[in-house]
Design a protein that fits this description.
Elements: H1 2-16, H2 24-37, H3 48-77, E1 81-85, E2 89-92, H4 95-102, H5 105-115, H6 119-123, E3 129-131, H7 135-149, E4 154-159, E5 163-171, E6 174-181, E7 191-202, E8 205-211, E9 214-220, E10 223-235, E11 242-252, H8 258-262, H9 266-274, H10 294-316, H11 325-328, E12 329-334, H12 341-352, H13 357-367, E13 368-371, E14 382-384, H14 385-391, H15 393-414, H16 418-424, E15 427-428, E16 434-436, H17 437-444, E17 447-450, H18 453-463, H19 465-470, E18 475-477, H20 484-490, H21 493-503, H22 525-550, E19 559-564, H23 573-588, H24 592-595, E20 601-606, H25 614-631, E21 640-645, H26 650-656, E22 662-665, H27 677-683, E23 687-691, H28 696-703, E24 709-711, H29 715-724, H30 733-743, H31 750-758, H32 769-788, H33 790-802, H34 809-821
Parallel strand pairs: 1-4, 1-12, 4-11, 12-13, 13-17, 17-18, 19-20, 19-22, 20-21, 22-23, 23-24
Antiparallel strand pairs: 2-3, 5-6, 7-10, 8-9, 10-11, 14-16, 15-16
The structure holds 1-deoxy-1-acetylamino-beta-D-gluco-2-heptulopyranosonamide.
1-deoxy-1-acetylamino-beta-D-gluco-2-heptulopyranosonamide (CR6) binds at residues 134-136, 139, 287, 335, 373-374, 451, 480, 672-676, 694.
């Protein structure tokens, strides 16, 4: 009875002695208990890694307390919830972030030092959770942090890949990929929910049945797999709210196939069942295209099906009428990867809940919103019809039904404009008939957004022009943001302390607009001194890392010039390298006296190439070949060094970004949907050398052109430059000279680099490296000039941080909550 339960709860609370305590002594006791009972080592002998494990469990306990309270609170208040569906999350490490969000950083450091351990050393023991490729995946992680911090009733859903993004190993300058079996040493940040499981169906046939005189469809699956939930608590900062990132792992289904067992082939039957686990075993490492792979499609449906069963179960626990679903649930599609959720919701409503088609479609269109993260039409996901038909036969029928409804509606509005109808159709006819997931997502979502203003405009005027003209009200812009908790507080503690000191408050950690207050002191000499000191400390940390990974000693007086991101032709790492070769060539040809005027540079490049992306891999090799030459040229000395940082990931970024003086965001205008790295550098007071692409256009508005180094063709000029080609493009002689050097084998590997050189010469220079080269060099020269004037540089640096507030994911999430999801904060009482 409920009376018994209350009495039991009270008795338990008494026994528990209240909540866990956070003073250093209590923390020490808990750490030691975990050493003994969880890690199973003696309290008198454990190493750094074991101490990290014990500390993590001690923090995890505290997260769980808050997480329980939050979930109970959400259940009691029953607010409208947002469900963020994403196939990728780049969480990186969790320990420091959790401790900071819990507000117990100092207590933990004290507790550890009394036990003879150093917090920073233990934090380094943790491996990265790299369940994603790049910007999109880290964005999901930043947004989860903001959702928790801002008290929104939110859930993240995703896949628990056993192998995260591959490890990059460089051998002789070439990239090799190695599997990232990240769970090898256990993962204290997740909680396995053995009882939260759902069956997920695949293959089979669709049959018709009649019940109460009505015909309906039944999907008879050919295969069944079990989805098991792994919950990752995500703590907010300055709040008790701790939300859930629920990741699904595939397990063999418990529904026994009696036939197979009875025929006596026991071993084969078990082995076949075991194969189910492969569904969640590996992350696809290509962030350009995901087309036509059955396993990828299986992953998408697996995650969508389990998440929706979970979401509907939660809804039904308290609500009967599915027409209320849109009042309680918002589903966010992070790119088209989870777009199968649309036909899946339709299938559940029509086939299982027996709602009428129109009623079901009405509900569906009210719950979905869709974010697209790309500019390139060719990067939009398409699923071959054959594949869908065999794996998800009922979903294909539903998509066809949606499409005929869509086409009818279109014909009513635009008549028989067949070209336009076929452009907009969800079904693409052609050599391989396929389903356009973006068209499906746009038609069935109430809002569609781009990830920067420029990107959102390009969606309206180019990529989805037809759709925009039809439903302008659907289209929105949600400029990306990054969390200052991870990207300043965790990764740059000295800057964090400095900002708080000068603003006289730590409130900016929750209220980022306060950073603007730094503008007032931008010219203050004592702030300058402290600012420079902080930057020096961070450069030192980075220099040590460079020495440890590449053996190269670098001077702290040099400008640290960084480009870190996935390797892509459109991101133009090649432009950077060609610029470096040019700089090298200039220094070599300079008179001794002139060399004194050269601003010394450490050029740092890092990033992974998709395993099948040949040109990207050649760029990595070229970078190494050039570095080999320059770094060993005694003529050059400290004036120029080139370093490739291997295995770039979130925790490496946390170390590099605070130590960078200059960072490069140099994509050909119109290609980077947003870019988020630039925001992290900006927050950390690193100056940007950039094209007016993606979110940099908005950064210019915040800090002004004078505080960064802008160059290159603008979006509207790019098309003309490509069209008119050599008649208007002025490729400087220096550019041709550098390309010639590479072609002639100046850096070795002559044959290997020819095809790379082909991509940047003449009419093949699609990304306009040649056309932008001159203005690139001018921007570089301006950066050199500014660096010599440290007063000016420091002021620009302070103004960069001060102007970075708009690029916090708190602002992004606030915009989504108000304009897209219609949700309100639901704060758990302390
Ligand atoms: N590769 C965009 O290219 C954007 C992020 C996050 C990307 C990048 O400009 O900042 O998404 N797109 O919105 C995709 O992943 C499809 C990315 O990370």
């Amino acid at each position: 009875s409920s009376l018994d339960r209350t009495a039991k709860a009270e008795r338990m609370f008494e026994l528990m002695d209240g909540f866990l305590k956070n003073d250093p002594v209590s923390l020490q006791k808990d750490i030691l208990d975990h050493v003994e009972y969880t890690v199973a080592r003696s309290r008198f002998s454990f190493d750094d890694f074991e101490a990290y494990q014990a500390l993590s469990h001690c923090i995890r306990d505290r997260l769980i307390e808050r997480w329980h309270d939050t979930q109970i609170h959400f259940k009691r208040k029953d607010p409208k919830r947002v469900y963020f569906l994403s196939l990728e999350y780049l969480m990186g490490r969790s320990l420091s972030n959790s401790i900071i969000n819990l507000g117990i950083r100092d207590q933990c450091a004290d507790a550890l030092s009394q036990l003879g351990f150093e917090f920073e050393v233990l934090a380094e023991q943790e491996g990265d959770a790299a369940l994603g490729n790049g910007g999109l995946a880290r964005l999901s992680a930043c947004q989860m942090d903001s959702l928790a911090t801002m008290d929104f009733p939110a859930w993240g859903y995703g896949l628990r890949y056993q192998y995260g993004l591959f490890r990059q190993v460089i051998l002789d300058g070439f990239q090799h990929e190695q599997p990232d079996y990240w769970l090898n040493f256990g993962n204290p940040w997740e909680i396995e929910r053995v009882h939260v499981t759902y069956p997920v169906k695949f293959y089979g046939t669709v049959e018709e049945d009649i019940s109460n005189g009505e015909k309906y469809k039944v999907w008879i699956p050919g295969e069944m797999v079990e989805a098991v939930a792994y919950d990752n608590p995500i703590p907010g900062y300055g709040t008790r709210n701790t939300i859930t990132l629920r990741l699904w792992a595939a397990k063999p289904s418990n529904q026994h196939d009696m036939e197979a067992y009875n025929t006596g082939d026991y071993i084969d039957a078990v082995v076949t069942r075991q194969r189910a686990e492969t569904i969640s075993s590996i992350l696809y490492p290509d962030d350009r295209s995901h087309q036509g792979k059955e396993l990828r499609l299986k992953q998408q449906y697996f995650f969508v099906s389990a998440s929706l069963q979970d979401i509907i179960r939660r809804f039904k626990d308290g609500h009967k009428d599915l027409n209320q679903f849109p009042d309680k649930v918002a589903l966010q599609l992070n790119d088209t990867h989870p777009a199968l959720a649309i036909p899946e919701v339709m299938r559940i409503l029509v086939d299982e809940e027996r709602l009428g088609w129109n009623e079901a479609f009405d509900i569906t269109c009210k719950i979905f919103s869709f974010t697209t993260h790309t500019v390139l039409a060719e990067a939009l996901e398409k699923i071959p019809v054959d594949l869908l038909e065999s794996l998800l036969p009922r979903h294909l029928q539903i998509i066809y039904d949606i499409n005929s409804y869509f086409m009818e509606e279109l014909k009513r509005r635009i008549g028989l404009d067949y070209n336009r109808l076929s452009r907009m159709s969800i079904v693409e006819e052609g050599a391989v008939k396929s389903i356009r997931m973006a068209n499906l997502s746009i038609f069935c979502s109430h809002t569609v957004n781009g990830v920067s203003r420029l990107h959102s405009e390009l969606l309206q005027t180019r990529v989805f022009k037809d759709f925009y003209e039809m439903w302008p009200e659907k289209f929105q812009c949600k400029t990306n943001g990054v969390t200052q908790r991870r990207w300043i507080v965790v990764s740059n503690p000295s800057l964090c302390a400095l900002i708080s000191k000068w603003l006289g408050t730590e409130s900016w950690i929750r209220d980022i607009d306060l950073l603007m207050g730094l503008r007032e002191y931008a010219a203050d000499i004592s702030l300058h001194q402290e600012w420079q000191m902080v930057r020096k400390i961070n450069k030192m940390r980075l220099a040590e890392y460079i020495e440890a990974t590449s053996g190269l000693k670098v001077s702290l007086d040099a400008m640290f010039d960084v480009q870190i991101k996935r390797i892509h032709e459109y991101k133009r790492q090649l432009l950077n390298i060609i610029g470096i070769i040019h700089r090298y060539d200039c220094i070599k040809n300079m008179a001794k006296d002139d060399r004194k005027k050269v601003v010394p540079r450490i050029c740092i490049i890092g990033g992974k190439a998709a395993p099948g992306y040949e040109m990207a891999k050649k760029i990595i090799k070229l970078c190494h070949a050039v570095a080999e030459k320059i770094n060993n040229d005694s003529d050059i000395g400290d004036l120029l060094k080139l370093v490739f940082i291997p295995d770039y990931n979130v925790s490496v970024a946390e170390m590099i970004i605070p130590g960078a003086d200059l960072s490069q965001h140099i994509s050909t205008a119109g290609h980077e949907a947003s870019g988020t790295g630039c925001m992290k550098f900006l927050m950390n007071g690193c100056l940007l050398l950039a094209t007016a692409d993606g979110s940099t256009v908005e950064i210019i508005e915040e800090i002004g052109e004078d505080n960064m180094f802008l160059f290159g063709a603008k979006v509207h000029e790019v098309a003309t430059l490509r069209e008119k080609g050599s008649t208007i493009v002025k490729v400087p002689l220096q550019f041709a000279r550098v390309v010639r050097m590479v072609r002639d084998g100046y850096f070795g590997f002559q044959d290997y680099f020819q095809s790379l050189c082909d991509t940047v010469e003449g009419s093949d220079d699609y990304y306009l490296l040649g056309a932008d080269f001159e203005s690139y060099l001018e921007a570089q020269a301006a950066a050199d000039k500014a660096f010599v004037d440290q007063k000016k540089w420091t002021q620009m640096s302070i103004l960069s941080t001060a102007g970075s507030g708009r690029f916090s994911s708190d602002r992004t999430i606030q915009d989504y909550a108000e304009q897209t999801w219609g949700i309100e904060p639901c704060r758990c009482p302390l």
